[in-house]
Amino acid sequence: MTSTAHSRPWRAWLARRWSIQSLRLAIQAGFALFILYTVVIHALIGEGSGVVTTSAEAYCPFGGIETLYTFLSSGGTYLSHTHLSNLVILASLLLLTVVARGAFCGWICPLGAIQEWLYAGSAWMQKRIPPLDRSVRALKTWAGVQPVRRFDQRGAPTLIERIDRWLRYGKFIVLAWAVLGAAAYGYMVFREYDPWSALLTITELELTGGVVVLAVVLAASLFVERPWCRYACPLGAAIGLAGKLSPLRIQRDGPACAGCALCNKACPVGIPIDTRATITDASCIMCLRCVDTCPKHGALDLRLSIPRLAPQRPAREQEVGL
User: Fold this and answer.
1) Which of 83, 126, 160, 180 has a Cα at 20 to 30 A from 120?
2) Which residues contact 41 (CB under 8 A, 6 or more apart)?
3) What is d(CA 211, CA 193) in angstroms, rounded to the nearest whole number?
4) What does residue 304 show for φ and ψ, rounded to 5 degrees?
5) pTM, rounded to two decimals
6) CA distances from 311 to 172, 245, 279 (A)
7) What is the mean pLDDT of residues 237-249?
């Protein structure tokens, strides 16, 4: 009895601090530390030392997408900076995407995690520094960003919100440019402007287009959660398209939904979850923050169903009779 009584506070402490988001954070940190270790070792030993070390670029699945055409058309030749490992990891990523949609973006990708952590750090600072919080709120108000509200309390989309919708197609344009450019010219045209490549080679201390893009992405992450993921990531675009084949999706039960919009506020890529019956957006990174945040048991949950490629009418319109 005494032992059980003493163990209960520890169980409660673990229950409060350990959740699916704690697991996700641990996995993100693990992959980020692995890539950091690879970059540091590769930089310290160097390519001309006679000791072979693995470049972190060998673990990039997008390199597999870029070199795939050249590999198939030439009978086994790779683009510069790509290896067989890129194709192997690409195949593994496709399998993961068919099983779990955008989970790579929400659970594994270090660049996505860095953006998420920067935004969380910025929000933490704003809560503790009132002048900073007021300044950021004033900036968002000036830009036309509306606070997250219940569905029945929202007004017409502002100009910045309409621009946001159009900018989300940007990642598909970048994907087409990167893949078609690599196939046409025989080298990775996107690499010069790739913030991930710039981050991996930051120790070279060169000012490239990728470094500029990386700086812009990191600065924007202080105000917008996952800006690169939302608007420009070509790998995220490819994952979003392949994820349409996945039977796994987040389902919203309309009658059980309280309409509080907490799921919208929790979503790191700004999906209007409370207007969907099924969340199959190409932007979804399967982080499950919406599910964890929902106060109504069963209103949001993971489901397996046959994939539907046709767009669905927003569920909220059906519920309110619009």
Assistant:
1) 160
2) 53
3) 8
4) -110, 130
5) 0.87
6) 17, 14, 11
7) 95
